[in-house]
Amino acid sequence: MPQVIAERYELVELLGSGGMGAVWRARDRMLDREVAIKEVALPAGMDEEQRERVHARTFREARSAARLDHPGIVTVYDVVEHEGRPWIVMQLVRAPALDRVISREGALPPARVAAIGADVLDALRAAHAAGVVHRDVKPGNVLLPHNRAVLTDFGIATVAGDETLTQTGAIVGSPAYLAPELARHQRASPASDLWSLGATLYAAVEGRPPYQRQDVWGVMAAVLNDDPDPMSQAGPLQPVLEGLLRKDPEQRLRPEDAIRQLRQIAQDTPQAAWAPPAVGGPPVRDVTLPPTPPPPTMESPPRRSNAQRWAILIPAGVLTAVLVAAAIAFIAFVSDGDDPGARNSPGAASPNTSGGTTASRQPQTNAPAGFQTYSGSFAAAVPQGWKQEQTGRNVSFTDPDGAATRGIFFQHLANTTGGEATHLSNAAQKFENDSGYTDYKQVAWRENIPFQDGKAAEFEFTFNKSGKAGRCRVRVFSYNGALYMAFLVSGQHNWQDSNTKFETFLSTFRRP
């Protein structure tokens, strides 16, 4: 004799169970349709008052989830009480959950994971707009019907602004995917769901959660104190995951930026280019994955007093570990004009540690008036008389006129290509969040710029550094089988002339 819930829902098959209850396939006798029905489990040792509070929370949150109408969210039809327990009636989605797909297939290709992430994030944005926070985003709650992803189980979601009825001391949610602020028993927010989404996508692309420890308390301690375990399979997804997994909710990647990056990765990255680790052996890095380059070693700048220089600093980790192994720091120092003797002193000479040819040694025949030809790992017209410093493939050209306060910089990022806009977006947010750039304001963003053999992406921002008004234009592009960044930094007072020089540099950029 089948069990019938609330004289209406006939239980047919147990689909799964977990810490928050069991899910059944059932038949709605009234409407003659199949549904999924969740039996909400209550923790052992709860007294009657605590049980009533959990029941109240369940009914309230099921009602809030029932308000959500989105193709990426499993619809809640009803919530009933049976034998003193709440049961949530939901749309039945015949599809495997992401955790089972990971268990069966191992690490998934970044493009596929990006598509899953974009679908889930779109669903979360709809929920957040309605004031609903999920609180338990994890692979087991992401269903994968054909060519899309659906988010289920808002059973422990809370309505923003409502009092949380969680039992004191209980862990609500899955520890491996629990945002650090929730591990501290702080209030859930949309940013908490973003962290859990990042952990979920990490698990999908790496084949394991971001923190693997011996027990739940080790996981919780790692969530609170440690960086995620190093990634080896994420490829173009790594900047997005790092942005979502920041411990400070205020510093996490914004949902509009994350979804744009995820969609681009899903569209631009060939799935066949990424392979999971070999079974039974150590992880194998696909040749298309960016290898971890050594930290860039920039030549020390000329020694000047702090009062006689304007330091142009790039925030730590500006392009993340997927592009450079360590932070780019002290890219250049540009004199503020108070030390006229420095430009002629021995210490101000332009070293060329790679042994390449400097611009001053090149013939002027192919360069526009006022420019000279640089030739090294690339060729381009650079302003005549500008000082060159070079280490490996990294080159800087700075105006020796200290009052000009400007320079053009060329930086090797990674031995991979593609995903320019994705990496640039992550860099843009790093700049925005860096406290050293006061009065920061993004003034331009451009994607799909034809450049070299593909597309480039760039953005511009204004800022104030050490009392100096400045402006920066950053372009990321693929060239000669690798990813590079070219950027211009200048005082605001001579931006137009500096930008014209940068345009000439870009328009003449070519293979040597």
From TrEMBL:
Question: What organism is recorded for this protein?
Answer: Actinomadura rudentiformis
Q: What class of enzyme is it?
A: transferase
UniProt lineage:
Bacteria, Bacillati, Actinomycetota, Actinomycetes, Streptosporangiales
* Keywords, ordered alphabetically: ATP-binding, Kinase, Membrane, Nucleotide-binding, Serine/threonine-protein kinase, Transferase, Transmembrane, Transmembrane helix
Q: What SUPFAM superfamilies does the record tag this protein with?
A: Protein kinase-like (PK-like) (SSF56112)
* Segments traversing the membrane: 310-334
Positions annotated to bind ATP: K38
Please report a single Pfam family linked to this protein: Pkinase
- Residue spans of biased composition, Pro residues class: 290-299
**For bias kind Low complexity, which ranges apply?**
272-289
Its protein name is non-specific serine/threonine protein kinase
Give its E.C. classification number. 2.7.11.1
Q: Where is this region: Disordered?
A: 268-304, 339-372
Residue stretches making up the Protein kinase domain = 9-266
Q: Where is the signal peptide?
A: none
Task: List compositional bias (Polar residues) regions by residue number.
Answer: 350-372
Q: Which GO terms describe its molecular function?
A: ATP binding; protein serine/threonine kinase activity
